[in-house]
Amino acid sequence: MNTDLLTRHLRVKSYGAFTLTDAVRPALxxxxxxxxxYRTEVFREGGLRLPVLTAAVxxxxxxxxxxxxxxxxxxxxxxxxxxxxxxxxxxHSDFRRNHIDAPVLASHFCEFxxxxxxxxxxxxxxxxARRPLEVQFDEHKQLTxxxxxxxxxxxxLRDHGVGRKGKLRFLSEAEHLHHSSDAHGDEFEQxxxxxxxxxxxxxxxx
Length: 206
Description:
Helices cover 29% and strands 29% of the residues. The strands form three sheets. A seven-stranded antiparallel sheet has the order 4-5-10-9-8-6-7. It has a two-stranded antiparallel sheet with strand order 1-2. By secondary structure, it is an alpha+beta fold. The protein has helices spanning 3-11, 59-70, 102-111, 113-118, 151-159, 182-195, and strands at 14-15, 18-19, 24-26, 37-45, 48-56, 76-83, 93-101, 122-128, 134-137, 143-146, 176-178. Strand 8 (122-128) and strand 9 (134-137) form a beta hairpin.
């Protein structure tokens, strides 16, 4: 592989009007060109059928959209912190905290905004404590919502100028590259301690 070519490729952050965070890049041949938008599908597992929305949002608006998507979840939340720091495979560890006040959790997220946006080994999933609603902000910096009624979440995206694109493809669906650092690994531990995951025994989201 041409090292200079790869270095130049990794420095490219913008594709038209869409700007990536530092967390992920498409592969060198750009199999999926990043662009803003969302698509909806239906998640099926066993007898469960649940509408799902997945969105790609340009970096300058991404964190604000994430926080706004949390508002329909209610005042009491469960949160799972996802980490692949130190992993050599696609596996990751999940660390769960139940029953945290929404404003408190949002405050912690704001304090660690740089980590959540720019670390390709950190993801979070936030669930309503009362209803089957979940918002994921994953390692690819994509936003995914599981909800019986997606309308409140679609309104959030519309208010931020994120439109529906039925055939939209995401970076996670083709070859891509993640970026992280030892400093981000340390920051992840600090976030986990702040939220209340102090022992780092992995648990798995329901």
